[in-house]
Amino acid sequence: MQGGEPWTVDRFFEGDGTARNIYEAAERMASGIGPMTVRVSKSQVSFRRRRGFAYLWRPGMYVRSMVPVVLSLALPHEIGSPRFKETAHPAPGIWMHHLELLDSSQLDGEVEQWMRQAYEDAG
């Protein structure tokens, strides 16, 4: 594959069926909340309204990791759940919550609630 090819969902998840399955479940969840667009770059796949609200990335692209996908949610406040591997506060009014996903079953009702909050705030 040549470096100049555009990034697509297929290219981003190439060679990792588990990561692709997690993406597909997350995309179904996000599109079930409301209209959104998908943007793919070399480093992540983002779900967007007026701005991004959910981001999927593969930690194995950067560090040694057995985690296929991390879902990062941009929320207007911090959520104190032990499910999040890390929470960062990169800008005023934005808290990035990083959730390691080993399989699509982790995309449950609680995650959908958080994603809905992120979606509403991104409009």
Automatic annotation (TrEMBL):
Occurrences of domain DUF5655 (ranges): 11-121
Pfam families with a match to the protein in the record: DUF5655
Highest taxon of source: Bacteria
Xref: InterPro entries: DUF5655
The protein's name: DUF5655 domain-containing protein
Lineage, uppermost ranks: Bacteria, Bacillati, Actinomycetota, Actinomycetes, Micrococcales
